[in-house]
Write a structure and sequence with these properties.
heterodimer, A: MetI-like fold, two-stranded antiparallel sheet, 15 helices, disordered N terminus, B: 366 residues, OB fold (Dihydrolipoamide Acetyltransferase, E2P), 9 helices
Chain lengths: 304, 366
């Protein structure tokens, strides 16, 4: 037919170039594997080095041999830490604080987010923005005024807040509540309005709507917020360093460096073993809840 | 007994009047459809009956009790939403029983009611599924099931079929009608689709700009619309409206559409229309189905005239023909075998017994 020749106008791409889609994809995959490998090496090197070091005796660490290989593996660092009451106290303090902080944070932020996202009251939008703004204030700016506040509490009520591990339970929510509230606002806002109207007509109170509809539907967001609160309180370093000094009041991150570094003597083997043991609980939690965490973060981000 | 009464109900959003003081009486067991273009206040009215919107002024009564300040859960109503609003984490059974559970209804009664409703809606085998495993039509059934289970005084439907594809919409429409025949509960149904309104309703309420234009049975609205809006809104394709002059010639009246075309008004209408002779701004209204191909035996009020067709649209069972009078497009419906061809002259027949005369200024049908 005559019009078959007309369809290929001069300068148009010739046919074989359309066929390179699979080749493009292959190249894209190669590049992504290349960068992923690069990333993995970059981020996994420190923990691997920590692990290798934690299996060495102090003598081997200081010896001038290949630092990437263990010639004489020993579990003495781990055994030493796990049989040491001080280390177990740090661990217990951290665990108690984290569990309490996560509980308090979720109880406050879920209810606050529900109110801010759903009960349209005067100033609710401004308040929601305000909640997020408080998250942007760095904690390094806050601990000096906190010293003043603690002194004032001591003068006025006679309650000494300094040098107690449980003070952290009051402090950490100031870091976790704003961000968790913000995540949950985004999550709750993505739930269609008709759902709470349906619940309202079905006879649910606000509280029942929250517990029976919103929390189950927003479970991924809730888990994301929980993980965030846990990570923040587990890894918090500045506040416990500033506000606790006695050995039995210390938390894990601070305890490891204050007790295992004696003057200029670094007990590297135990420091690495302690750091790895300390990193274990978040790792285990991530591994189990990772899918929820990612779903929660993305949903919160786009619908906020 | 569950009649719903609206008295001078007003809804104001800040300074915008969404509903401008409407009065409406809905009888017990009646199926009433609120229809109108978007923004006419129909959904707001429904939501005020549900208690999801506060009313600015007036009274709403359900079953004789004024419910202005009664919360939705105590109004004994059930609502079906456009996007179904099923609880995604509960299965169908839990979705349907949620309201009863909150009311602490005994388990065996809940079970009995859920199974009964499931049977009515033919969703018994879906009771264990989660909403995301259901198709659009099935979800809509579950949403209706959730309403039926509660055995409320009033069903409220807020555009329940708008999210479904065309075929399913027709199917569900019939389904809703069947359910209403079985359950016989007072129903208020909101839609923007006039065909849905016509097919479902015992009475249709046409709303426009926050006001009620007309209330009546579907056929009454179709055949004797009271306002220009109702005449144009109900019916598809819409009623033809052409500016005209009403002329008297002796005892008879004539509608002059153009210099060359005038049609005689049926004798039965002359008395009604005589006061409007010579009035400016009149519109002549005739539905497309009353503008057909000519036939060998014409009835008394049928008049024929020649037109040059611009466009023809074969629909299968009929052909829509378009032509222009004084630049205004007119639509007629002819038999597909009548030989309608584009750009050709055709003899058409106007059934003047079904004509309407509209005052364009007051927008009233005369």
């Amino acid at each position: 037919m005559a019009d078959a020749t007309i369809t290929t106008s001069p300068g148009a791409p010739t046919r074989p170039r359309y066929g390179s889609m699979s080749r493009d994809r292959r190249w894209a995959l190669r590049w992504s594997y290349f960068f992923l490998t690069l990333f993995a090496i970059f981020f996994l090197t420190p923990p691997i080095y920590m692990f290798v070091t934690s299996l060495k005796s102090s003598a081997e660490i200081s010896a001038e041999i290949n630092p990437w290989w263990v010639f004489d593996p020993t579990l003495s660092n781990y055994i030493g830490l796990l049989t040491d009451n001080v280390f177990l106290t740090f661990f217990l303090n951290s665990a108690l604080i984290s569990v309490c902080v996560v509980t308090i944070t979720m109880m406050i932020s879920v209810v606050a987010a529900f109110a801010l996202a759903r009960m349209k009251f005067w100033g609710s939008a401004t308040l929601a923005t305000g909640v997020f703004l408080t998250y942007l204030i760095p904690e390094t700016l806050l601990f000096i005024p906190l010293f003043k506040m603690f002194a004032w509490v001591n003068d006025t009520f006679g309650i000494q807040l300094m040098n107690h591990w449980w003070t952290m339970i009051i402090l950490y929510p100031t870091l976790t509540v704003p961000f968790c509230t913000w995540i949950m606002i985004g999550y709750f806002a993505s739930i269609p309005k008709e759902l709470d109207e349906a619940a309202l007509i079905d006879g649910a109170t606000w509280f029942q709507t929250l517990t029976k509809i919103f929390i189950p539907v927003a479970l991924p967001g809730l888990i994301a917020a929980t993980i965030f609160a846990f990570t923040v309180s587990w890894a918090q370093f500045l506040y416990p360093l500033a506000f606790t000094t006695s050995t039995k009041e210390l938390v894990l991150p601070v305890g490891i460096i204050t007790t295992l570094i004696k003057g200029d003597v670094f007990n590297w083997g135990q420091i690495m073993a302690g750091a790895l043991l300390g990193a274990a609980p978040p790792l285990i939690i991530y591994a189990f809840l990772m899918d929820y965490y990612i779903a929660g973060l993305t949903a919160g981000a786009t619908k906020g | 007994m569950a009649q719903v009464t609206l008295r001078k109900v007003v809804k104001k959003y800040d300074e915008v009047l969404a509903v401008r003081g409407i009065d409406l009486d809905i009888m017990d067991k009646e199926f009433v459809v609120l229809v109108g273009p978007s923004g006419c206040g129909k959904s707001t009215t429904l939501r005020m009956i549900a208690g999801l919107e506060e009313i600015t002024d007036g009274d709403i009564a359900i079953g004789g009790d004024v419910v202005n300040d009664v919360p939705p859960k105590d109004r004994d109503i059930a609502m079906v939403f456009q996007n179904y609003a099923l609880y995604p984490h509960m299965n169908v059974y839990e979705n349907m029983s949620f309201g009863l559970k909150l009311k602490r209804t005994p388990k065996d009664i809940i079970d009995q009611r859920v199974r009964q409703a499931a049977q009515i809606l033919d969703i018994t085998e879906l009771l264990d599924r989660k909403p995301k495993q259901l198709s659009g039509g099935q979800r809509q059934r579950v949403a209706m099931g959730r309403a039926i289970v509660r055995d409320p005084k009033v069903f409220l439907f807020d555009e329940p079929l708008s999210n479904l594809d065309a075929k399913l919409r027709v199917q569900m429409r019939t389904e809703i009608k069947k359910v209403h025949q079985k359950v016989r509960t007072t129903t208020v149904y909101v839609t923007h689709d006039q065909i849905e309104a016509m097919t479902l309703a015992d009475r249709v309420v046409v709303m426009n700009g926050g006001n009620i234009e007309q209330v009546g049975p579907p056929n009454e609205l179709y055949h004797s619309p009271k306002t220009k809006f109702v005449a144009g809104f109900i019916g598809s394709p819409a009623m033809n409206m052409v500016p005209c002059q009403l002329e008297a010639s002796g005892d008879a009246l004539k509608v002059r559409l153009s210099d060359t075309l005038s049609l005689a008004v049926p004798a039965s209408r002359t008395a009604r229309y005589r006061p409007h002779v010579g009035k400016p701004g009149l519109l002549f209204g005739l539905r497309p189905e009353h503008l057909t191909e000519t036939r060998p035996h014409l009835e008394a009020d049928m008049q024929t005239f020649d037109v040059k067709l611009d466009v023809t649209e074969p629909m299968g069972m009929e052909t829509l023909v378009y032509f222009a009078i004084n630049g205004i497009d007119i639509c007629g419906r002819v038999n597909p075998n009548a030989g309608a061809r584009e750009s050709q002259t055709m003899k058409l027949c106007a059934d003047m017994a079904n004509m309407h005369l509209i005052d364009d200024k007051t927008e009233q049908v005369l």
